[in-house]
Amino acid sequence: MRAFLREIVITLILAMVIFILLRFTIQDYIIKYDCMEPSFQEGQRVLVNKVVYYFHEPQRGDVIIFWPPFDSEEPFIKRIIALPGESVEIKQGKVYIYKNGNVIELNEPHYIDPPRYTYDRVTVPENEYFVLGDSRNHSNDSHVWGTVPRQNIIGKAWLSIWPPSEWGLMSHYPLEE
What we know:
Radius of gyration: 19 Å
Oligomer: single chain
């Protein structure tokens, strides 16, 4: 009987440790708006990796979940476009990054509609990121309210878990030059 109780206690402690570890490393997020279409759909549920950015800095093309730099009841989901210290400009349907004296036109996937707006060249402050929704013309993002401070980033969208037809790893296209 004593061995049986010890096994139950050990199992319960192990289950609690696993539960706590999971709560601190991943969380789920439900996409509430159409700002990331066609990449992600409203109502889609994703898992967020909350520890990945302890090991490396966010990269251009990463889809992140973050608290916007203004009061909001819900976190946002967007794609990182420009990194700290870079400049970004949007004109004539193209997104340009200025880095190390070079101008780079982002090589975005064909399914992203070109932006129909102009955004004057701005330099991204240190420890901040410029983010855009994949639905460029229907997204409340950095072209409207500015950059996202590093401390506001919750994590990187990692795995789509709902609906079942969308199950799989998230698309983080690299947007490299």
